[in-house]
Design a protein that fits this description.
By secondary structure, the chain is α+β, with helices and mostly antiparallel strands. 58% of the residues lie in helices and 16% in strands. Strands 1-3-4-2 form a 4-stranded mixed beta sheet. The longest helix is centred in the middle third of the chain and has 23 residues.
């Protein structure tokens, strides 16, 4: 009888432990920023802006907003790559909520630039990615009410399949 009670107790403990994990989704790795690459991207952005007569300055507050939005943006791209519509919608909602809270009433546009990990992120690859996505970038700026971009913040993360550059742009 005593052994039976112990067996039941162990089984119940095991069932309870398994039940804790049933509601959990996939565990994603934490998003790590690449500070050295962020510094380079910020410098390149100022230079590339000058090439098109756009005076851009880096802004620490916008970089903080970008850092807060980076994990949700990674989730958006991961869901898009996985073609998981439900996760994509949830990640987009999370991103917009995070941006709204972090921006605190400012007009801030999140501009994400994705570079596949087929090579290294350089000034040329960043420039090409921005040029290729210029119509989308302009739509994002318009949607968020940023008519004359002047300030930006940037964060960069290297994921398994891509490098994500997340700009926050404001006037």
């Amino acid at each position: 009888m005593k052994k039976m009670k112990r067996l039941v107790a162990v089984l119940l403990a095991g069932i309870m432990a398994l039940a804790m994990f049933t509601a959990c989704g996939p565990i994603s790795a934490p998003v790590e920023r690449d500070a050295a690459l962020e510094k380079s991207v910020a410098e390149w952005t100022v230079e590339l802006g000058k090439d098109v007569n756009l005076e851009l300055t880096e802004d620490a507050e916008l970089t903080t907003i970008s850092a807060k939005c980076l994990p949700a943006t990674v989730k958006v791209w991961d869901a898009m790559i996985a073609q998981d519509q439900k996760s994509y919608i949830a990640a987009q909602t999370e991103l917009l909520n995070t941006l709204e809270a972090a921006a605190n009433g400012q007009k801030v546009a999140p501009v994400d630039v994705l570079v596949l990990n087929s090579g290294e992120l350089t000034k040329d690859t960043l420039s090409a990615a921005v040029k290729n996505g210029m119509s989308n970038i302009q739509n994002i700026l318009n949607t968020f009410g940023v008519e004359k971009p002047a300030k930006f913040g940037v964060t960069v993360t290297k994921q398994k399949d891509y490098t994500l550059v997340l700009f926050m742009v404001s006037e």
